[in-house]
Amino acid sequence: MGALASLRINHTDRRVAERLVQRAVSEVRRLERIFSLYHDDSPLAVLNRTGVLLAPPNDLVVLLHDCQRYWELTGGLFDATVQSLWALHRDHFTNVDHDPGGPSADALRAALDRVGFSHVTFDINRVVLGRRGMGLTLNGIAQGYATDRVVRILRSEGIEHSLVDMGESRVLGGRSDGRPWRIGIADPKAPERIGETVDVRDAAVATSGAYGFRFDPEGRFNHLFDPRSGGCAARYRSVTVVMPTATAADALSTAFSLMPEAAILKVLTSVGVGEVHVTAATGKRFTLGPT
Fold first, then answer.
1. Phi, psi of 104 (to 5 degrees)
2. pLDDT value at 123 more than 90
3. Quick one: average pLDDT of 195-218?
4. Which CATH superfamily is domain 42-129 in?
5. What's residue 2's pLDDT?
6. How are beta strands 52-54 and 190-200 bridged, if at all?
7. From CA 138, how far away is CA 66, in angstroms rounded?
8. Looking at residue 1, what is its pLDDT?
9. Closest CA to 199 of 242, 252, 238
10. Cβ within 8 Å of residue 19, ≥6 positions away
11. Angle in degrees, CA 245, 225, 164, rounded to 5
12. Mean pLDDT of the region 88-110
């Protein structure tokens, strides 16, 4: 799904560990065939092309329920239907003669007319996109979901210590020597460097920042779209979320990038767990937790 992946397993039997790695790789490849926008024949690509998908794979239905949950929890700021905004900006900025000020107001309004998870209906029989030209992108949650599926496989085989990174990180237990796992957070000004670290046990960590993908050199136009206005995230340099599952961390890091501190705290208080590490636009770092 467009991300690098790694898996570290602690096991006394190398053959068992290698078998588990192969199971994990097979599971991720299976999920990629469902959720990928890079494969024209994936169920997601077919849905976006036709507006309807009959007999959807169970994993797609489960993930759409997750999308709905985080859409509701964040007041609509996590919205999987922003694909039309992505397509608009991609087409605009790949045009040789593009306006550096971004897409026109008319084009933006037209794209926003195709955004809104409330227009998506789904059950085990079908998925329907309620407006012509709508499209789903699961890039803000699918990597977390895949990570959680791999963790489920490992736990079913009795693995107690592992680090899984399928675009988002999740750890089982602590390290085999008893210490917590230490997860690096990229420096948003120089993403090839580690800016800070967090120590975690039995938790997932996901980071979102405008530096992840920029349409323009300054990053004014980036992949973190506000589904209300069509604008792009600029409030923070990066947002890192620690949650019990990678699905939650992945989705919330996307939404929190668009939310003021008070709104983030309200969500954390609602779910009762989690921790958010923020690098503000000024470069100041601070941490938020449920109250």
1. -70, 160
2. yes
3. 93
4. ApbE-like superfamily (1.10.3980.10)
5. 64
6. unpaired
7. 11
8. 63
9. 242
10. none
11. 25
12. 96
